[in-house]
Amino acid sequence: MTCEQISDWLGDSVEGTLDAQRQAQLDGHCRGCAACRELLNDLMEIRAAAATLDRRTPSPELWSAIAASVVAGPPAYAASPLWRVRLAWPQLAAAAALMIMLGAGVWFAARGQRPANQSGSSELVRSAASELQLAEQHYENAITALEQLTVAKDNALDPSVAAEIAQSLQSIDRAIDDSRAALKSEPNSFIAQTSLLEALRMKVALLQETVSLMNATS
Amino acid sequence: MPAFEELYRQHSTRLFNLAWRMCGTMADAEDLLQEIFLLAYRKLPEFRGDSTVGTWLYRLAMNRCLDHLKSRQTRANGATTTLDEEAMHGTVRVSDGGFKRIDLERAIARLPDGARAAFVLHDVEGFQHHEIAAILGITEGTSKSQVHKARLKLRGLLTATV
């Protein structure tokens, strides 16, 4: 056997799918050919290393963004208000901290423990509805409190920044209205629920950021 | 809709890693993952069941990744240049375990798109050649050939002196 002849078998040998007779011929060749032996070892080493490369996980927020975009309608997703706001206001970690402080974290924890495939049972549907109501109330409380703060510092921002924030808030309010309308027609829709909570969460994040800006400039 | 969420739960991590290795950055991979699932949601009614839904989803994902790469090349994006500019760690012998995982990641990023797709699907993600054939729209033999060529190319890149 020559090196050229066995080269066609290397791929199958690396994957362990070469038939026994050819594998024996290849092994025999490699015993006497250091170059082919080293090549085969290298290819096996590469395959083994590739199988153990790091695995990354997407951001936990990604599903919420996808769900919200599905509700908003696929063609509009790239320019959707939610998406723009997410990019424009990346301080969601701070908003998440605020949510936990207000108790909405309890809702997420409870919801995370609910088996996804049992959402059809009436008990769980009722439970989900009350969880949604609870979370919505927490967000609304936060929004009311933050809005009062922004009103108190009404003139603290540059007019152009204030206008941009007002525009973003209008977009989020539209998303909230749309989600509520979707929920009205489909009260058990997970997508509509997620979209509403995501929109409320973003409104809290934006308002909190607005207050921070006002504090920094006053 | 819970079924669609379940589809996301089952496949998002694998698809995310696939998009990341095909396109090079985590940010691109996240954007692509969103696009892939929104596209899947829109196209789900067209799914005819002539393959598993997983295969259909990966085919859709790979097409999106390859389109993304084509448009990036058209814009003469510097991603490949960046990788080329990054020095690897001197001369190594692969069989001595002398390369680092980061070197392998960088070398994978330098493979031609088709070979990279087949290699990542087979050696990294563990798909079988018949599955790769269905995902990439190639024959099983071509898949085997692409993966083998990719390994040979990687060996060359990993043993090269930079």
Which two chains form the greatest contact, residue counts included?
A: A-B, 38 and 44 residues
Segments of chain A where pLDDT lies below 50 for 5+ residues?
Answer: 74-121
Order of helices and strands of chain A: HHHHHHHHHHH
In the CATH scheme, what's the topology name of the largest domain in chain B? Rna Polymerase Sigma Factor, Chain: A
- How large is the share of residues in beta strands of chain B? under 5%
CATH homologous superfamily classification of the largest domain in chain B:
RNA polymerase sigma factor, region 2, helix turn helix motif
The secondary-structure class of chain A comes to mainly alpha
The number of strands of chain A is 0
Q: First CA to last CA of chain A: what distance? A: 84 Å
How many distinct domains of chain B? 2
Describe what this molecule looks like in 3D:
The complex is a heterodimer of chains A (218) and B (162). By secondary structure, chain A is mostly helical. Chain A folds into two domains: 49 residues, no CATH class; 156 residues. Helix content of chain A is 77%, strand content 0%. Chain A is built from eleven helices and no strands. In chain A, helix 8 packs antiparallel against helix 9 and helix 10 packs antiparallel against helix 11. Chain B is mainly α. Chain B folds into two domains: 77 residues, RNA polymerase sigma factor, region 2, helix turn helix motif (Rna Polymerase Sigma Factor, Chain: A); 76 residues, Winged helix-like DNA-binding domain superfamily/Winged helix DNA-binding domain (Arc Repressor Mutant, subunit A). Chain B contains eight helices and no strands. Chain B is globular and about 50 Å long. About 9% of the residues of chain B have low confidence. The chains are: A mainly alpha (218), B mainly alpha (162). The interface between A and B is large, with 38 and 44 residues.
